[in-house]
Amino acid sequence: MCGIIGYTGKEPALPLILGGLERLEYRGYDSAGVAIIEDGRLIVEKRVGKIRELVKSLWGKPYEGKTGIGHTRWATHGEPSTENAHPHTDEKREFAVVHNGIIENYLELRGELEREGVSFRSNTDTEVIAHLIAKSYRGDLLEAVLEVVKKLRGAFAFAVITVHEPGRIIGVKQGSPLVVGISEGENFLASDIPAILPYTRRVITLSDGEIADLTPEGVNIYDFNGNPITKDITIVPWDLISAEKAGFKHFMLKEIYEQPKAVGDTIRGLLSPAEELPFSLKEFRRVLVIACGTSYHAGLIGKSWIEKYTGVPTEVVYASEFRYGDFPVSEEDLIIGISQSGETIDTKFAINFAKDKGARTLAVVNVVGSSIDREADYTLHTHAGPEIGVAATKTFTAQLTALYFLAASNHGERDKLIAELMKMPARIEAVLEKAEDVERIAQKFMKKKDFLYLGRYLSYPIALEGALKLKEISYIHAEGYPAGEMKHGPIALIDENMPVVVVCPQDRVYDKTLSNVEEVRTRKGIVISVGFEGDERLEKVSREFISVPPVEEDFTPFVTVVPLQLLAYYIASRLGLDVDQPRNLAKTVTVE
Ligand code: M6R
Fold first, then answer.
1. Nearest protein Cα to ligand 1, atom 9
2. Are 144 and 165 in contact (CB under 8 A)?
3. Are 407 and 299 in contact (CB under 8 A)?
4. For 100-157, how does the pLDDT look when each residue is reduced to its tens digit (9 = 90+)?
5. How far is the CA of 465 from the centre of ligand 1 (A)?
6. What whole-number distance in Å separates Cα of residue 419 and Cα of residue 585?
7. 3-class DSSP state of 545
8. Is pLDDT at 13 greater than 80 in this prediction?
């Protein structure tokens, strides 16, 4: 996590860097800082808190320096503080470094440096990089960096500048994302594309083991041995407008409302010959789906569809568990890695591990050109556009779309099934028209301390997803549970203070879930149900009833998840919380 940015060119670097940091803030936001080369010296400014604190501290300081780097932090080593905020410098403040990721052997390196008499100002792993580069420097920054990267272990990306070579930035990628933005007489470096989109759409995506050497005149790429590498320049297809709020109060709300488009665009994208897969799922002995968070929940639903339409046994595993388990993986397996960002390190490592074992790998990603997109053998892209809110919404329904498409494509009735899928944008529109009902319910229950979410079959992952949305943005404790498991423990929690959100469409388990609703009612729990329009049985036994348009069983997740996203959104928004950037979270999780 953390966001890094660098600029070298003809304009004062500071406003460009601050603007870029604001667009990267979703990656981490406990502290921020910049370093600018101004009149042959380094100006370093850092602040705890959000980027606006840093911006405030720079008011009235019109630095003119044309080369600089910036950072927004999500703390791993060292608590959020000014000392631990980036950039970090060497003792003489001649070199400044911003870094994303973890230097695993930093304690060892720090020990060596301290024994040589170097004194440290922070508790971070990053500071070792600044000291090591200063020690290796003999007049060429690239040479010094090449010497230092050989000593570093871990997954990281960093950028470094020095007063000795104003106008030059060196960026290193090993595990964490880093892109180069190319423009006329100016060049950029950033963790993610939106940071540089206002200035350029011409981008080079660095791969692991690559180093970018930027000056205003050009960019050269090298491997860690200093050999030059030729890379293609990609033209980014998004424009900035699609990454702005378009009149919505928060990105999350805008993105919830973008779901009909995200689903429609994903279907259209997957219908293009470029996304066609050269194999059938039925060729495999087993499918293993690997993902984290919301993507994992999409995977749980995808499993049911894959098993239904192909008969191939499918397992879903958290990427962080997969990596350290003893899962037997072979050439007979297909590994599906699902990731919005395409950068989640656990998912990425899991895919690499599976590849090493000879399994074929398929990614479902939103960010084109991301690490997972590039490293998997095949990719199905979700065409949801950039998602800025930390809580995943439109990318979840886009992932569902891609997984349904995949399962249906392996079935004799493919065209009929996909025609049904094409109705989902309109069905989601219909749910969004009822947003006011959800807002009213949110207002009624926003002060509750705990929520339980229940569902069976396809609605169980939706219950998990509803609970995750609520806890991550409202900080209210919420648990998702299979409705049938409630009687094996969680039922003890139910009393007149406990809202229980029950996802209960008229599917194969409808009657069973209704029985669970009765069990909740008997214990005086507050039933908030999500069910089909006109379902009087469910409405009658619920304190609050949220209706969604009736759809075939397979498609219930598309309509039932939306009210749960809205419920979480309205609760957090009414509580006055930072919906788009909830505490402790980051949009892209590039640490283990
Ligand atoms: O980018 P990814 O889909 O790999 O991210 C996985 C999770 O970190 C992500 O879904 C996270 O749980 C979201 N904050 C959920 O809203």
1. 293
2. no
3. no
4. 988 999 999 999 999 999 999 999 999 999 999 999 999 999 999 999 999 999 989 9
5. 11
6. 38
7. strand
8. yes
Residues 359/334, Cβ–Cβ less than 8 Å: yes
Residues 293 and 405 in one domain: yes
Residues annotated catalytic, as ranges: 2, 587
| Same domain (yes/no): 482, 514 | yes
**How many angstroms does the Cα of residue 294 sit away from the middle of ligand 1?**
5
Index of the ligand 1 atom closest to the CA of residue 372: 4
Domain range for 334: 245-422
Select from 206, 204, 207, 179 the least CA-distant residue to 193.
Answer: 179
pLDDT digits (tens, 9 = 90+) for 181-202: 999 999 999 998 888 988 998 9
Six-digit token string for 357 = 């074992």
CA of 512 to the centre of ligand 1 (A): 31
Spatial CB neighbours of 112, under 8 Å, sequence gap ≥ 6: none
What residue owns the CA closest to ligand 1's atom 16? 391
Question: How many Cα neighbours within 13 Å face the side chain of 540?
Answer: 5
Q: Does ligand 1 have an atom closer than 6 angstroms to the CB of 392?
A: yes
Whether ligand 1 lies within 6 angstroms of the CB of 389 is answered as no
| 442 and 467 housed in the same domain | yes
How many distinct structural domains can be found in the chain?
A: 3
Structure tokens at 163: 């007063």
- Give the model's pLDDT for residue 532: 98
User: Mean pLDDT throughout 526-550?
Assistant: 97
At a CB cut-off of 8 Å and minimum separation 6, what does 548 contact? Answer: 427, 430, 431, 434, 505, 530, 531, 532, 533, 559, 560, 562, 563
Tell me the residue ranges of DSSP E strands in 349-473. 360-365, 378-381, 450-455
- Digit-coded pLDDT (tens) for 335-381: 999 999 998 999 999 999 999 999 999 999 998 778 899 899 999 99
Residue ending a domain, choose from 397, 422, 447: 422
Residue 588 resides in a domain:
no
417 and 439 share one domain: no
